[in-house]
Design goal:
Elements (H helix, E strand, L loop, with lengths): L1 E26 L6 E9 L5 E4 L5 E24 L10 E2 L25 H7 L9 H14 L1 E2 L10 H7 L1 E2 L1 H14 L4 E8 L9 E10 L4 E6 L4 E2 L4 E7 L8 E7 L4 E10 L2
Parallel strand pairs: 6-7
Antiparallel strand pairs: 1-4, 1-13, 1-14, 2-4, 3-4, 5-10, 8-9, 8-12, 9-10, 10-11
Amino acid sequence: MKYRIQHKTVYRYTEPVRRSVHELRLAPRSGPLQWVEDWRLTVPGNLTEARDGFGNIVHNFTMAGPAVTIAIAATGEVDVRAVDGDGPAAFHDAPEPGEARVSPLYFLSGTALTQAPPALQSFAAPYLAAGHDLPALLALADGIAGQVRYQSNTTDVGTSAAEAFGRGSGVCQDQAQVMVAACRALGIPARYVSGYFYDPAATAMASHAWADICLDPAQGLWCSIDITHRCVTDTRHVRLAVGRDYTSAAPIRGILEGGAGETLDVEIVITPTD
């Protein structure tokens, strides 16, 4: 599937922002699961581009001067790859020649958002007692989706996996972080993925999140599982960035001087072009 994606984020303030510094992970990269044919970012400042240690494309810009609106737009086309009409169950994600990237084993270490309390470890352990092959991981994802039921407006970006698991509800971000926390607690490298999910029945599109689980660290072999939809990712999924948790894969992060009374509007349009 090939998609045309338009993603616009507008911040508005009742008091002007005097200065701001922004870090964006809003540019997908080509890899084993997708090919980026075109991508452009529009921001109120000069962009610099780099790669982080996870392989993500990272842009930065600084905005000086008073502003009551900050608009950030991303537009492009991505061709999501498939095998015989279905997304591949496992894929090799190795650094490009000359690229420095962390080892898959780096994704064994927890973060403040992905600590697994004893109750979460006890919940996950029976699913992976015989190993972490794909059927076992899908069973765990199904269990997590049932335990942390999807419910909007019950959590925020600072909610940890432990909090979401204890609450029993959350959104895709929380379900992904619970999956990541559970796998890491049982000695399996796992990383958080931010991106888009195309649903032709949806009245409005939104960002999405899921988890990559490492099947073989020595070979850099991964599988990508959407906990919310209880499936291996497929041609409906477009990847933006990976990280240890939400904070290191967030599409937009920023630091402001001034800028009280912030409101946020996000519009995402995903159109199949095939």
